[in-house]
Amino acid sequence: MARPMKFEKNEAVGKALEVFWNSSYAATTPQELVEGLGIGKGSLYNTFSSKRGLYDLTLAEYVRRRAEVLEATLRRPGSRIDALAAGIAVLVGLDMANPKGCFIVNAVAEHGEGDTVVADASANLFELIKRTFGTCLEAAVQEGEARSDLDVDQKASELLAIVIGSSILLRTGGDKSAVEGLVDGVLRELRSGEKASRS
Amino acid sequence: MARPMKFEKNEAVGKALEVFWNSSYAATTPQELVEGLGIGKGSLYNTFSSKRGLYDLTLAEYVRRRAEVLEATLRRPGSRIDALAAGIAVLVGLDMANPKGCFIVNAVAEHGEGDTVVADASANLFELIKRTFGTCLEAAVQEGEARSDLDVDQKASELLAIVIGSSILLRTGGDKSAVEGLVDGVLRELRSGEKASRS
DNA sequence: CTGTTTATTGACCGAGAGGTACAAAAGCGT
DNA sequence: ACGCTTTTGTACCTCTCGGTCAATAAACAG
Question: How far apart are CA A81 and CA B154, in angstroms?
Fold first, then answer.
């Protein structure tokens, strides 16, 4: 009944996420978005209203993707601590060649408290991470991989803070091995008091 | 022999630091700087060459100030862990009404790896913090405040990551008490295995 | 094939960013 | 008082940002 769109909206949001991730929100220009999405400026504004409107969509999309990857990683069978290690590695960006940090962390740093959209997105992501970590730790305790008197909630909060901190540390260009060592050490502590494996 | 400047340069850098801290580098306009410093645009550019030139000075100034406050806090007599707690609190911004996060962390998040000036400043600050924490932990072990088998270097790295992470968490507007609890928990763990006090 | 509806393109626009130019002013030595 | 030097204030400039708007194109209903 009318002309159809030449591009998929979700796909465009994904591309926009990449563009915004490469620099800050403020430093990203409409021109870069046009080039990155491969569509005309008119279509851009016709579809997404404003630069900020598109940005808001990328925030939500990023959280969605993180939720997916985190769930997938931690649902793998085997040692819960190993799974936790894998989850942390991917969250921090240890698997990437040149990490750009966590998109949401960058957004929080740029926009701060006043920005409710960013605040909401970060609250969603951070609580998701903490909850997932908590579940995993709980299971580790049950399996005897971690000491039974572990304060699961406290440790989950610590791990969240460490993940956030590490994503920043890794973004500075400091050597990746230092961050790897840091994460390894934390996990080693977790295991250090473990009971004998039941298997 | 010539007309003297009407303002102190260092003082102006301090004011600029406030201005840049209130929003991102990219979002800060020359106009805001002129108003924040209370000088004319001509003087601004005559003295600091460019917006970026001024920004670079604020980065160094911030690191200098952090070094001062950290040294002052941790040199206080008494329990080393208490001193550590105080240092962490001030670094994270728990003492401030509405924390704007760590200026350097914000800069890293905004500019990323490619920016060598920001990378250098962050390396300076982060190593300073880690080293100071390490010294303090070492002393805590000596004093019998922390368990003697503590991996000081590992723990210092962890605390650095947690401080960075907490500065982000606090900036989102999430409740301050959660971050306080997190920090308290970490310090409690440090003490948990302590030997009997020698005094 | 025509009409209706919606998408796309790219020219256009007001505003403000980031910075420059230059005349006037304020010191200082003599 | 008079140069000489450096700072200051303000007008000005260019360029790009962020966005709008006709004109055009593509689909489908009848």
Answer: 19
CA-based angle A84:B188:B96, to the nearest 5?
A: 95
pLDDT given at position B197: 47
Amino acid at A28: T
Report CA(A49)–C1'(C7) in Å, whole number.
14
**Residues A136 and A84 sit within 8 Å (Cβ to Cβ):** yes
Contacts of A122 (CB under 8 A, 6+ apart): A104, A105, A107, A108, B172
Q: Residue A82's pLDDT is what?
A: 96
Average pLDDT estimate for B46-58: 98
Distance CA B114, CA B18 (A): 24
Cβ distance B101 to A109 under 8 Å? yes
- Compute CA distances B135 → A38, A117, B63, whole Å: 54, 41, 19
pTM of the model: 0.95
- List A residues 44-63 in contact with B (Cβ-Cβ < 8 A): none
Q: Please determine, for residue A42, whether its predicted confidence score (pLDDT) is greater than 60.
A: yes
Would you call A96 an interface residue with chain B, using a CB distance cutoff of 8 Å?
A: no
The CA distance from A156 to A136, in Å, is 9
**Angle separating helix axes A152-171 and A80-92, nearest 10 degrees:** 30
CA distance B21 to B17: 6
* DSSP annotation of B2: -
Inter-residue contact B93 to B180 (CB < 8 Å): no
> Which residue type does B71 have?
E
Contact predicate A124/A179, CB 8 Å: no
Q: Is A82 on the interface with B (CB under 8 A)?
A: no
Residue A81, CA distances (Å) to A73, A135, B45 in order: 12, 11, 55
